[in-house]
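Long-time lurker, first post. I've been practising inverse folding by hand and with some scripts of my own, and I keep getting stuck on stretches where the structure tokens seem ambiguous. Below is the full token string for one chain I'm working on. Before anyone asks, I'm not after the true native sequence, just a reasonable design that respects the backbone. If someone could post their per-position residues I'd love to compare against what I wrote down in my notebook.
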């Protein structure tokens, strides 16, 4: 645990290695290096869609929950943006061409289980949205460069302009984490769930790497 006792810092420190493994995954590196075929990017976008559909479904169910509710912000919701990206990548009948991979189905199922565990839901919320608001910005720029997307077509998922200042948003988000009314046992459980969220996401990336990027599965 970190010395200042802030839960946001405890959470970050306890999951730093898992976070680094997800960000440094071969599939992600191939995308950032401009070496990932566009079909791999399109496949990743589809898997994001199924994960975020689960995340936002549970978020709406927990919107009035005293613990999880303060984190549920419609300005963060990614499903509408993902639908626009999938239309740009797959055409207007995109829904006929995409389906969750087995690792994504497992990931989405775990997220839906959090409907009965508000702190666990916040763990998944933190893992996804804070990652997208931070490192995801580099991915969006890399994809636009690599695939020649025009405007936000194909990268709407990474457009968080509705949030205003991203540094201020992240500061306010960390303050909400610090304000969570959790005892030490509940904090440790939430940290474990955050680690599991990173692991599940990494398994999705590994599967995508095997399918779409030679040498990117490790």
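-- Answer (accepted) --
I ran through it position by position. Result:
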């Amino acid at each position: 645990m970190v010395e200042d006792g802030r839960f946001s810092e405890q959470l970050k420190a306890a999951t730093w290695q898992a976070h680094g493994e997800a960000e440094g995954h071969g599939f992600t590196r191939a995308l950032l290096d401009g070496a990932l075929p566009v079909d791999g990017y399109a496949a990743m976008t589809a898997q994001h869609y199924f994960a975020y559909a689960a995340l936002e479904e549970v978020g709406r169910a927990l919107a009035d929950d005293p613990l999880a509710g303060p984190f549920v912000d419609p300005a963060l919701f990614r499903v509408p943006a993902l639908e626009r990206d999938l239309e740009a990548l797959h055409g207007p009948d995109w829904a006929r061409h995409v389906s969750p991979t087995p690792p994504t189905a497992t990931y989405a199922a775990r997220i839906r289980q959090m409907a009965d565990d508000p702190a666990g839901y916040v763990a998944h919320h933190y893992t996804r949205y804070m990652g997208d608001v931070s490192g995801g910005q580099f991915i969006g720029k890399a994809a636009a460069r690599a695939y020649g997307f025009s405007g936000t077509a194909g990268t709407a998922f990474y457009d968080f302009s509705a949030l205003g200042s991203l540094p201020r948003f992240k500061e306010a988000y960390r303050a909400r984490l610090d304000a969570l009314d959790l005892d030490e046992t509940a904090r440790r459980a939430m940290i474990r769930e955050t680690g599991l969220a990173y692991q599940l996401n990494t398994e999705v990336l590994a599967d995508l790497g095997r399918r779409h990027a030679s040498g990117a599965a490790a």
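A couple of notes from the structure itself: The chain has a mean pLDDT of 91. DSSP finds ten helices and no strands in the chain. Happy to go over any region you disagree with.
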